[in-house]
Amino acid sequence: MPDAAVAARSSETTNSGTTQQVDVAVVGAGFAGLYLLHKLRKAGFSVVVIEEAGDVGGTWYWNRYPGARCDIQTIDYSYTFDPELDRAWTWSEKYATQPEILRYFNFVADRYDLRRDIRFDTKVKAANWDDTRERWQLATDNGPSISCRYYIMATGCLSAPKPPEIDGVKDFKGAVYFTGRWPHDGVDLTGKRVAVIGTGSSGIQSIPLIAEQAAHLTVFQRTPNFALPAHNGAPPDDRKSYFETDRAAYREQARWSLAGVPYPQETAVSWQLSDAERRERFEKAWAAGDLVHILTQLWADQAVDFDGNALIGKLIHEKIHAVVKDGETAAALSPHDHPFGAKRPCLDTNYYATYNRPNVTLVNLRQEPIKAITASGIVTDKRSVGVDVIVFATGFDAMTGAIMAVHPITGRAGKSLSNVWAQGPQTYLGLTVAGFPNLFMITGPGSPSVLSNMAVSIEQHVDWVVDRLAALRDTGFTTMEATETAQAGWAQHMADCSTLTLHRLANTWYTGANVPGKVQGLMPYTGGVGPYRSICNEVVGRGMLGFKLTGPNVAEQCNDGEVVRLQPDVRLVLGMLAEMNLPQIESLGSQGARDFLTEFNKGRPAGRPVGEVGSGALQGADGPLPYRLYRPATPGPHPIVVYFHGGGWVLGDELSDDPFCRDLCRRSGMIVVSVGYRHAPEHRFPAAAEDGYAATSWIADHVAELGGRPGPLLVAGWSAGANIATVTCQLARDRGGPQIAGQLLVCPVTDCRYDRQSYADNAVGYFLTRALMFWFWDIYCSPADRTDPRASPLRGNLANLPPAFVATCEFDPLRDEGIEYAEALATAGVPVEQLQARGHIHSSLVMVDVVITGVSARAKMAEALRGFAGLPRKLETSGEDAAPIAVNAAAG
Ligand code: NAP
Predict the structure, then answer these.
(1) What number is the average pLDDT over the span 743-761?
(2) What does 814-828 look like in DSSP terms, one character per residue?
(3) How many CB atoms lie within 10 A of CB 221?
(4) Residues 426-459: pLDDT tens digits?
(5) Does ligand 1 come within 6 angstroms of the Cβ of 393?
(6) 60 CA → ligand 1 middle, Å
């Protein structure tokens, strides 16, 4: 049915006594609720929407404070479900004002005749699931109660204002206003002494306008926030022309983007750009006046790496100091306690310049906390400020406040949501909660919601939910409920995603830190809008994975499981590789495969700088071999790590693991010598193994010449290189040297058997395939030779070997033989540290600056190397030479 015709459709709700019977009850008539109503009607469901306010608009109905505007460009903050609607409305400004946005919602409500199914001025007081009737029973404070099959909370993320939490508010004799509940007739502040408490988005938008009216304005700031100029005006030409040229493409790009606004993924990392290049990018972003631009388009590591992020903070501090004339005030306004973007930054118009006005005073509550509010004003530790009006811009009980305001919400077996969420919200996809059948949340905790353009996220949620309800009806199911496994898996995935970003380093309303006593934890999903959409689609594509479906005349269906077990960045990498439609490496022949690898490696981020990179030749088992040497920038001499690259004994060279070698060098503070050992098929077994031993012996004899610290060496390797490293340790023990102090084995090949479970579990789909391993073995080693411990070190004598650190990855065919090797070493009395990296694939841990969740694993590897060398495990770092601050990874 065309959208325009849906308005004519009746919801056909019925009243039985004092209860209204509907298929679906929706709470909230904001952006989400209005679209839900339209879409549900269109799908043939009877619907009632319950709304506390007197009209439509949700957050835009309540937030009428001076200066209230959208902070996502309004071209992007629009419904897209109906192209005719999209064309019928044109925004007058880049960032529309609250009145214009409210007019838009009224326009939408009229166009689809939505109001007749909305019960305004009505609150849902309680919601109870009736297991026998398989319906939700909703008690309201106005009019009949409601019985519905499906209960959808479209209550918004920022709709429950936070109480002021300051003693004495009730004693104040002047006027008190909350930005989130601003009087509809406006407030005349002319000639008044006004206090504003709070400098979040609402405070920052309203302060300049209040300052223009008030006789005097005193701003009470607890935490300074980053704000950038909105440069409001007409929608910018570049965006408008892209939008006008191909609206469908524009909208589709937004749907698959990171934040719900059509920007590409930035690829240049901060340390690859010069100071001048970074400044140029920053100035462009500052001039663009667009939060999503500055949050995503400066450099690729801005949101994931502390150092890359800190560069932005400094540049913004410069801007603040350039505008604000009083140095002390400028310093107080400059945020220092959180990374840029970890707390929601603000868009402003003349915010910082407002502090140059003679009638504006900033009170820094970090230096002089508020003691109390009195009848005549506000008293801090240092002063008493007399005011006529107090404006609380103190924010919201975000994300869960409005949901928990319906109390109780009781699910199966009388379980109350407030008990289930006592330790923080638990959801599957941010949409559903185990134990609460047929309950849905739009942009609930666990979904991208407030970290995205809400318009895009809301439409995605509504489409997904309504499509599921229609599918249930078509297949005879009447209930749908998340499983505990799926929900726990989602919590783990959320945690994995959050280790990628810097949000966890800030106390914000994203984490519940703004509400005293609220359990803290990052509530929105940080994995991005596009990945989230693909996960929701995957849930459906895999037969409603993680949901139990029941119906009176159909067999129960429960497809239990976790939708994402991979680390989020590994998932993205695999997705990108799949899109590239790469050839099977084993089909290319050895030379073709080498050429392919060389080309492939050109696309990866260059490794970070080290003190010095050199190259030379060393003596292998049968002639000279090239090597590459990475020296730390710190004063030497340093211990030497002999490194063997991966590539199945067939591919790669001393340069092919360059970023990983640099990373090891920086993190361990040691020289890394990467050896270009011989490869099959030109040189089959035992050439590589013997080269490994010979190279290590040569390096041991030339330690001083290489600038290394006298004493035992360390060996390390990845994949087939780890096989060579461990074989080298066995040979060094058996042949009387050289001395080796420790071995770092990353996803090692340790045995020629293919029947371990990991070969079956991870045969395809995770880059290193079973077929590729077969091919490597066939090229390297004849079946008769494979049981030789120089090919399968697991079969050798493991006693008296150097201590080892063995890293294995969950989704790697080689996982189990790596674990078995570590266990066998331990059984033989060798000290072993094991790291089993959850959610990683064979190549994750060496994909430096691509797989960020591998960082903590690499940090542990470096610590282990330092421990082997008798150094303190943690490297003292300072200044430029410091390894990047580790983003906590999820390696287990
Ligand atoms: P907010 O960001 O939570 O800011 C609240 C401010 O009040 C903070 O500065 C906070 O300080 C301060 N505060 C809270 N309790 C206090 C207390 N007891 N004593 C002193 N200071 C106190 O709230 P908001 O400004 O309403 O914005 C919330 C979110 O709504 C925004 O981040 C944004 O996502 C959205 N919003 C959007 C727009 C828009 O342009 N579209 C406009 C407004 C809001 P601390 O930081 O120290 O807690």
Answers:
(1) 98
(2) THHHHHHHHHHHHHT
(3) 19
(4) 999 999 999 999 999 999 999 999 999 999 999 9
(5) yes
(6) 16
